[in-house]
TrEMBL record:
Keyword terms of this UniProt record: Cytoplasm, Nucleus, Repeat
Subcellular location: Cytoplasm; Nucleus
Name of the protein in its database record: Integrator complex subunit 4
Residues annotated as domain INTS4 8 helical bundle: 625-827
SUPFAM superfamilies: ARM repeat
Presence of keyword Repeat: yes
Gene Ontology terms describing biological process: snRNA processing
UniProt gene name: ints4
Superkingdom, natural source: Eukaryota
Family: Belongs to the Integrator subunit 4 family.
Domain Integrator complex subunit 4/Protein SIEL C-terminal Ig-like: 836-975
Gene3D superfamilies cross-referenced by the UniProt entry: Leucine-rich Repeat Variant
Xref: InterPro entries: ARM-like (IPR011989), ARM-type_fold (IPR016024), INTS4_8HBD (IPR056235), INTS4_C (IPR057412)
GO cellular component, one term: cytoplasm
Amino acid sequence: MAAHLKKRVYEEFSKVVQIPHEEAPAKKLRLSKPSKSAALHIDLCKATNSTDALQYLLQFARKPVETESVEGVIRILLEHYYKETDNSVRLKIASLLGLLSKTQGFSPDCIVDDFINTLTNEKSHQVLAQLLDTLLVIGTQLPENPTVRHRLIEVACKHLSDMYFGVRNKCLQLLGCLGLVDSPLSKDGEDLILSVGLCLSTPHTLNSLNRPRDVQSIISDYFVDQDPRVRTAALKAMLQLHDGAVKIHEIIYEQACRLLSDDYEQVRSAAVQMVWVLSQLYPESIVPIPSSNEEIRLVDDAFGKISHMVSDGSWMVRVQAAKTLGSMLQVSPHFLEQTLDKKLMSDLRRKRTAHERAKDLFASGEFSSGRKWADDAPKEKLDRNTVNLIASGACGAFVHGLEDEMFEVRIAAVEALCKLARSSPSFAEKCLDFLVDMFNDEIEEVRLQSIHVLREISTHITLREDQLDTVLAVLEDSSRDIREALHELICYTNVSTKECVQLALLELLKNLSKYPTDRNSIWKCLKFLGSRHPTLVLPLVPELLNTHPYFDTPEPDMDDPAYIAVLVLVFNAAKSCPTMPALFSDHTFRHYAYLRDSLSHLVPPLRVNLVDSRYGSGSVESPQLFLQQSLNRVSTIQNLEAPGAQELLDLTIRDLRRLGELQTELAGTADFCATYLRCQLLLMKALQEKLWNMAIPLCFKQNVTATAAAQQILEETYKLEFLYSGLKNRQVATIHHVRLQAKALQLILTARSRPGLETLISSCEKFVQDMASFQRLFALEMPHLQDSFAEKLLEVMPRLSSCKPVELVKILQTTLRQSSLLQLALPEQIHRATATIIEPTGESDNPLRFTSGLVLALDIDATLEHVQDPQNTVKVQVLYPDGQSHVIHPKPGDFRKPGPDRHRLITQVYLSHTSWTEPSQIEVRLLLAYSSSSSSSLSKLGWCDSNDSLPTPEATVEGTIPFSKPVKVFIMPKPPRR
């Protein structure tokens, strides 16, 4: 009562006095997504039968689950798992549990006990195997938790006695992924292993119980399991232990060797891998030879056993065995050479040589009288069941591999020979005949691989005349890839005699007459052939050049590709043979001067009297110095008047382009410098005094010229950025600086010619964004841009962001005219992307006729040099006489890569057009596509709530650059017949 009375008094008093109450703090609302576990629980409760439950689980599997909801969902699934009686539903639940355990950010250590408990009462073998697979996922998610690993190993040991092969496979996978070689097992685990061993009914397993138990011994017990799938799983589990940096016991080697004769190819395949692993771990260990008192190294014994597998009944095992032999580099040379020696077998008995039989007869004092039939036949009798078709050891392994009926085996044998020959020059000499014989294989892929292999070991071999004759016979192959690969092989191959050089030249000239499109490849081949064999070419010079010591001979035609090929061979040999030019006639010296200018990449500089002294040295030091001096001379144009500066730039550009034509090593660098100076020259002409001092209506023509110059500068900067490779950040910053100047010039010209204020405002905003992007991208290169246009603008950048458009234009005009030429710093090497269209040649006057409305397939063959990612950037453009243009993107399979920084494009372009009255020419050329954006240079932004504070990136500019000379082709669409 007293408390109630006090409360009434306080209420009445507060009404009179009106004591202000403190406002209650506002409650914060937290929006949460509906729980996945609750929704799943509701769905599973609604299921009336196993089909409905399975349908709900399938629908749930298609939806993502948040990390914080994973544990709740797993609990719901486990709860329903205990209630479910249908095996298919439990199997699906077990599969979902494994998928949920892989969720990123979720640690499954809290549910390990629950998962292990599900194994206790499970009767279905399939569900049990799936649950073990889920435990395998959990174990791989918790590699640093030794307690979980040991528990899972004990679980695997417990279920190894299951009758279902799938359960035993999963247990072995658990042991292979999680087992450690010295992992101590608990007393329960040892008891489980003991019970597993007693369940196995093989003597080998019972005997193995006496040795110390570890994971490897448990797995090796299942090498003799009755199911081949379990034997395969046991071998793969042991290989997984090896991949996990666990050293396999050497005692496993004997068991793995026995499995090489298993009835199932999967077991034999895994056994080959196991034997190879042990041969790499214990190469110097000594193992006994069966039925003999001798001992050999383990790696040699393994090499012989794997060599036997090259004659296996399964071609997949044969492929694997051949590939494995190629990686056994520690084998003894004696065993290695036996792989190329095929013993003669007669009725499964070894056939002794006549010398051996005569020696035995002489020792016994008996000779064949001829009265008895076959009294000199081999006396030794061998058991047919114990004789192997290959003689002892590795005899004839590669002979069988190279003669296999499956081309995959032959390719694997060729690749293995290559790997072994590269590490052993003596073996390379012995396998040369076998590789040359593979040039006549019926499969093109085998022939091509044999050529590539011979190219890789060419430094160890010298071809004889009979071998070279077999090699050169491939030049008549119709495949362009084969012929070009053979040209590449001859470039790096040594021959033994001058007759070999003469034979190679004659066959290459036949190839040139039969396939004129191989001209460039043959010329390059003869260049290297001559430079590698100068002493062998020297006695052939009078015959090759058709010279005579007393009589004048007619001057050959310089337009003949065959004569040019002979000169390329002779001139490259003369570079290393100073006595050879004395055999040249007068017209040969003239032809040398001509070829030195026109084909400088094929003809080297020679020390001859009739040649200019600038070719005296064979180095590029002098041209490099001339290039640097030209750039230094250009840096002085700030002190010259406008006409003199422009004339100096013109002369320098001409010199640089000529230097690029004469010196192929500096062609990319010289062209890059000439293009950059061309941009500066265009900018200088656009900023002439008379253009900016006249009124706008009076300089309309000059304004148009300046607008065209600004657009041309932009196009040239894209060429500089995307057509040349080897550029550093400093050169890229210089290119973007010139592009910024061109954009400023465009903005000034827009303000002078277009009176609209809205267009000017948007152009000014875009330019300010470009300036900000330039500053952000090239902040580290700003110290190298002193007194440049960009540096002066960045000094007044805050003012540019807030000033009016007219004032911004005035600042840009003043800064642009006062900025100095930015000195170009060159990297060590710059390459220009080039393309040469070999076919069509454009020399034929016969039009290609096809019916109007249908298509004509035009073969395109082109060589690409220094093109980055050609599959995505190279396109073919077809320009028709009526102005239509089609751009075709070749397929990725149309590109080949015969060498570094070199690609080959062989494709077909389909043409179609309406009927014409006369044949007309179409132009075909190659384009290089590019995409320029400042945002592409920035790192990708992470996930954030807002990006309002980020500057707007520069708009992406996409375009194409022609980088090949156009080829004209006559076509004639005929009207269709009625």
